[in-house]
Every structure is written in C-alpha cells, then in structure tokens.
Amino acid sequence: MPDPAEPPFDVAGCLALVREGDQRAARELVEHLYPLVIRIVRSHLPRRVAEEDLAQEVFLKMFSRLAQYQGAVPFTHWVSRIAVTTCIDHLRAQKRRPEFRWADLSESEADVLDAVLTNEREVPANDALAATELVQKLLGQLKPDDQLVLRLLDLEQKTIAEIAALTGWNQSLIKVRAFRARRKLQKLFLELRKKERS
C-alpha cells in the first residue's frame, strides 16, 4: 500500500526522463506499472505462456511504442490497452483445442456441470475449484475476443465503458460480442450434456 506521506508517482516527469534515455527512470516506470500489468496478464493468460514472459513482452511493447503516446488518455489506460492486446494476440496465435468432450472433465467438473445443466441440485461450495476449472476449460473453447469479453464482463465485473477503454471496441460491439459469446458457451454446455447422455 502506498505511503500517504509519499507524493504520488510523477508519470509525466518519469516519461520525460525515459524519453531522454534515463535507465533508472525506466526501471521506476516498470516498477510503478508492474502491479497493473501483471493483474491484466493473470486475468487473460493464454495456456502454456508464463505470466512473467508475457508481462515482459508488454513492457517491451510499451517502451518501443513510447513515441506514439501523445497524452490523449492517461498513461495507465494506454499501457492497459497494450497489455490486453498482447494477451489477445497470444490467444489468437494458439491453435484451438480439439473438440472438447465430457471425457475431458475431471469427476468433480462433471458433477458441477451436471448440477448446472440439470438444475436438480445446488453446486456444493467445496466444488468451487472444479467450477472455476470448468469455466476456464469452456472459455478456452471460445475465440479469443469472445473469451476476453466474457472474462471482463462476467468474471471481472467490468462495465461496458471500462471494457471499451481497455480494448478500444465500441460499446455496441461489446454488447453484441458478449451476447454471441454467451450463446456459444451455452451451446458448448448443451453439446457436452448431449454427448454424455449418448
């Protein structure tokens, strides 16, 4: 937690020094932005990609594009957009997983899915980990943009306006994409259930 007696970080002053080649200022800027970047990376981490590697890639892009930053938006928003875009690029680069089957689920994940689909019983509180893993597996079957919009809206509880600021998408596109992504997710649920019964 920042010390209340300590003055706020001077982003503009630090950026001016970084642009002059000051390595100490560059390290301070990374230290200041690291909590923001690592939080975004962890929220959207593609499979088989180390979070530190992805965070480092975000910072490399930030420094290589620093001349493009004109101050029209707060610097943290600009860096957040780079972080989100980097994660989306990695998700797109991954090949989609082969068809997802009921047999791919652990026993606890299958129990959670069965409870959700049949509405016959409540999902036990101790199955929270299985439910989380199941959601991640199902989201992994969606296109990267669909994954991102559902993660931001439903898992991180961000507003449409916040998502627009992070992604650069207009608000109508976000609403349509979320609607379609939820329908695709529901279809995946139903296909899994049908395969399990056959």
Helix content: 55-70%
Largest sheet: none
Structural domain count: 2
N/C terminus separation: 55 Å
The number of strands is 0
CATH C-level class of the largest domain is Mainly Alpha
Which class do the helix and strand fractions yield? mainly alpha
Task: Tell me the CATH topology of the largest domain.
Answer: Arc Repressor Mutant, subunit A
Based on Cα principal axes, name the global outline.
Answer: elongated
Named CATH architecture of the largest domain: Orthogonal Bundle
Rg result: 20 Å
Instruction: Give the number of helices.
Output: 9
Beta-strand content bin: under 5%
The string of secondary-structure elements, in order, is: HHHHHHHHH
Average residue pLDDT: 79
Low-confidence stretches: none
Which terms would index this structure?
elongated; Rna Polymerase Sigma Factor, Chain: A; Arc Repressor Mutant, subunit A; mainly alpha; 198 residues
